[in-house]
Design goal:
Elements (H helix, E strand, L loop, with lengths): L2 H17 L34 H5 L5 H11 L1 H8 L3 E6 L3 H12 L9 H22 L4 E4 L12 E5 L1 H5 L5 H20 L1 E3 L2 E3 L11 H27 L6 H20 L4 H13 L3 E6 L2 E8 L2 E7 L5 H9 L1
Parallel strand pairs: 1-3
Antiparallel strand pairs: 2-3, 4-5, 6-7, 7-8
The chain binds zinc ion.
Zinc ion binds next to α8 and α9.
């Protein structure tokens, strides 16, 4: 085994433990998706209207919070969501004191719970730490929304996105990776603020309970929807410009995660409502469909009048997958 083989194999194991619990891979990912555009990837192109770069942050010239504050203005989707009042702001490694100060006002909008405001604030902080601990367990702590608990979903509470050093300082991540992560988190912000509407079903705090719609199913659904937005945007860039700006590592991670969450939604609907939502979500996401074929993950893109696929070679381990997903 050459040193390069060993390195990519190590990286592969890391990646499979990070992004795809229970799925094991025995080969490098193959990106037919990237084949024509590969040369253009990993180019650190400065985004329009952004003056700070991730390189500036990594070299210590720009404070992470300043970089993130500028992203709100220069990633158009973020600016729009902030204008709508749904996105409250971007935070970098907030302390409990900062969270307490920032969450009190948005959570006071829960009218029926006004007497319980201090409790709601503490609950949001606890859940924030819990979701970070969960991300840490999976190996990648990138960002999470706050507040995040099921009881605020659909209550029109403005949401923050809290970022961690992981993606910002990841040696191989670039500005496009951060922009894609932002797109991911913005979908969580919208889904939390408005609830999720699929056909004639509106998922919110009112119908999320262990017997009707489990939080575990909700979590996998939310991730699938967020990763869909990322992959759609990446594919759109490829269709429009022929290039892919996110790093290949970031793309592979997002592809793994999408396939993983797709599989969960496909296999583990346990209630009538979950089953209905599953069908509606797959109909909505059919432009980016995942399948397992000969132990490979294939993500089929059929959007914007164009078709292609992202293939990830590897062995899909059904038993491990169930065990891990059931945790
Ligand atoms: Zn997410």
């Amino acid at each position: 085994m050459t040193k390069l083989d060993e390195l990519s194999r190590r990286e592969f194991l890391r990646l499979s433990s990070v992004g795809a619990a229970g799925m094991t891979f025995d080969a490098n990912p193959v990106y037919s998706f990237l084949s024509s555009a590969y040369a253009a990837s990993n180019v650190q192109s400065k985004q329009p209207n952004c003056s700070f770069t991730l390189d500036g942050v990594k070299s210590g010239k720009v404070a992470p919070q300043d970089y993130l504050n500028e992203r709100i203005k220069c990633v158009p989707e973020a600016a729009e969501l902030q204008k709508s009042g749904k996105l409250k702001g971007f935070l970098y490694e907030p302390s409990d004191e900062e969270l307490r100060a920032r969450l009190t006002e948005p959570l006071s909008k829960i009218k029926s719970d006004k007497g319980k405001l201090p409790y709601l604030v503490e609950l949001a902080i606890t859940r924030y730490h819990k979701s970070h601990a969960e991300l840490k367990r999976q190996g990648n702590v990138e960002a999470s929304i706050v507040p995040t608990h099921a009881s605020v979903i659909g209550k029109k509470i403005p949401v923050y996105v809290a970022f961690t050093p992981y993606r910002i300082f990841h040696p191989e991540s670039n500005d496009a990776d951060v922009a894609s992560l932002i797109i991911h988190e913005l979908k969580h912000v919208k889904d939390t603020y408005d609830g999720m509407t699929l056909g004639n079903i509106h998922l919110s705090y009112q119908n999320i309970s262990p017997k009707t719609f489990r939080t575990e199913f909700l979590r996998n659904l939310g991730e699938l929807r967020a990763e869909y937005e990322e992959l759609k945007r990446i594919f759109k860039e490829r269709v429009d410009t022929g290039k892919v700006s996110v790093s290949s590592k970031y793309l592979s991670k997002t592809g793994f995660n999408y396939a993983k969450h797709w599989k969960f939604i496909q296999d583990y609907a346990a209630t009538e409502l979950e089953d209905k939502v599953r069908k509606l979500q797959f109909e909505e996401s059919k432009g980016i469909a995942s399948e397992i074929k000969d132990n490979k993950f294939i993500i089929h893109f059929d959007l914007f009048g164009r078709k292609t696929h992202l293939a990830v070679e590897g062995v899909y381990n059904k038993q491990n997958n169930k065990q891990n997903l059931d945790k």
